[in-house]
């Protein structure tokens, strides 16, 4: 029978009480997700499991299905084991799924640390980094930025300073991901009972970083294309791995598209507050900050006191977030209307019978 120590090696927080289990049930964590089931781990061994139909449904555009990182209770008497119920999540990391239809995709759950990896080559993209940080903001997950391939970059210091200036409250590491000493700040954050996730585009160096954290070649790596520094998807599915440091790590495939869900707080380390302060000096209280006379924000943009690229990207993210929020709210309203209609029809049938 797994002990608290065993469960701690797959991320069970120290001191957290265990749920009540019925005879024969077992507490496990989902470590892998497949089309026809899940991999689950009890701290000692891994096994396959499946879930009832109701646990894999999408409810009004918001995925309620089990995900990597979830703690769940299983009935191991079945083959494969059957998921009985999910434990409440401490947090979850999600994005808007690709496509026109509004849908949320859960990336991972029950996290302590999110390591965003960005290469100091053609992968370097501060605006994409801001999207990752927008997904993390407000979740309670600690972010760390890793600028990989520092050994191949001639202006590492300047690029690191640029990211540190834009995100002064987030640790920034510019490292060679193969250097075990360089990744010590990450290892220190992934002790027993803690779970981290790696985020970044394909070819950024996530698999290399995973191998160094593991102390062995666990994930395949491949060379990036020379013309755009993009890599092949050597990691094709999310998986939770036990680390020698005592914690665990969720490695995830590179993401080409990062859509917002509408629930994010778009904050660029004080930039929103800076805009709000400037807007207080606008001539009109309802200024849209576009072509209105006396707009303090437009004046700051024209004088160069406000960075136009940063402002334009901030507005773009805000607009995307608002559009996603409208889609989500419309979907929830339609679902609520359908539920009310069904409830009314049931009452009429109970009262008058079917016609």
UniProtKB/TrEMBL annotation:
Q: Report the locations given in the UniProt record.
A: Cytoplasm
Q: Which GO terms describe its biological process?
A: ribosomal small subunit biogenesis
Residues of the CP-type G domain: 100-258
Q: What class of enzyme is it?
A: hydrolase
Q: Name the cofactor(s).
A: Zn(2+)
Alphabetical list of PROSITE patterns matching this protein: ENGC_GTPASE, G_CP
Stored Pfam families: RsgA_GTPase
Disordered, as annotated region:
219-238
Q: At which positions is GTP bound?
A: 148-151, 200-208
Q: Where does Zn(2+) bind?
A: 282, 287, 289, 295
Gene Ontology CC terms: cytoplasm
GO terms, molecular function: GTP binding; GTPase activity; metal ion binding; rRNA binding
Superkingdom field:
Bacteria
Cofactor binding remark: Binds 1 zinc ion per subunit.
Q: Which residues form the EngC GTPase domain?
A: 109-256
Please give the InterPro entries that the UniProt record associates with this protein. G_CP_dom, P-loop_NTPase, Ribosome_biogen_GTPase_RsgA, RsgA_GTPase_dom
Stated EC number for the protein is 3.6.1.-
Q: Which UniProt keywords apply?
A: Cytoplasm, GTP-binding, Hydrolase, Metal-binding, Nucleotide-binding, Ribosome biogenesis, RNA-binding, rRNA-binding, Zinc
Quaternary state and partners of this protein?
A: Monomer. Associates with 30S ribosomal subunit, binds 16S rRNA.
The record's comment on protein family reads: Belongs to the TRAFAC class YlqF/YawG GTPase family. RsgA subfamily.
PANTHER family in the cross-refs: SMALL RIBOSOMAL SUBUNIT BIOGENESIS GTPASE RSGA (PTHR32120)
Outline what the protein does: One of several proteins that assist in the late maturation steps of the functional core of the 30S ribosomal subunit. Helps release RbfA from mature subunits. May play a role in the assembly of ribosomal proteins into the subunit. Circularly permuted GTPase that catalyzes slow GTP hydrolysis, GTPase activity is stimulated by the 30S ribosomal subunit.
Q: What is this protein called?
A: Small ribosomal subunit biogenesis GTPase RsgA
Organism source for this protein? Pseudofulvimonas gallinarii
